[in-house]
Amino acid sequence: MFLVTTLSWVTISGFASLPLILGAPQLSFTNAVFESVSAITTTGSTILVGIENLSDGLKLWRGLMQWLGGVGIIVMGIAILPLLKVGGMRLFHTESSDWSDKVMPRTGGIAKATLSIYCFFTVTAILAYWWGGMAILDAVVHAMTSVATGGFANSDASFGAYADSPHLLWMASFFMLGGALPFVLYIRFLRGSRSALWRDQQVRGLLMLLFCVIAGLTLWRIASGTDAFEALTHTTFNVISVVTTTGYASDDYSTWGRLPLSHFSI
Known about the structure:
The chain is an all-alpha fold. The chain has 13 helices and no strands. It has helices at residues 2-16, 18-23, 29-40, 56-80, 88-95, 107-131, 136-147, 166-180, 183-190, 196-199, 201-223, 228-243, 258-265. The longest helix is centred in the N-terminal third of the chain and has 25 residues, at 56-80. The protein is globular.
């Protein structure tokens, strides 16, 4: 299972680099592979400069790679491997940090439910971003990378291109957090356990951490002379982005002072 997991990421990342190699001649082979590996693993690091000048197809491909890497590949593995007489849940456990007990009797049911929730979040994010004023391509790409907690954007400024649209920052904060929570708990919630999310220790710990850090840094910024709503909006967005390892940025938080910089570094 460890071998299958590792080889699947290597193989998929290699094939995923082909559109970048063929569609962006300014990229070397090494840089194209780096970009695809970063996308498929939802790391979010990029070597691209002038992302705004990429073709629409490549922008969409970057977002799609992160979306597939977020959960889609593992869901396909859970669904397909049992047909090959290989335990899909074993692959899930070797790749995922979610070691929750099975909530459905068959792995195929888990795969279908997980993919359905993932797609629901994605479509909802697309519609929300589009309604909030994003161009349709930007809405699609940012929705895929928000839910996948990958962080690829269609601009060198990352989400800072929408820094003057606080409603988009709040929407993105919600979808980043939603994509970071264990999907098994969503399945339990939909199957009747209405308190499944709050009863989970890791969810409570995450929410408490976010609340404390956001409250502290917001007060710090207000004391430094920043408008209260602006401070709360950008602090919430950037803290959630960092904690969920999404990697979006709406502002240069290195200019916020020593206390915020030390927290983000940790």
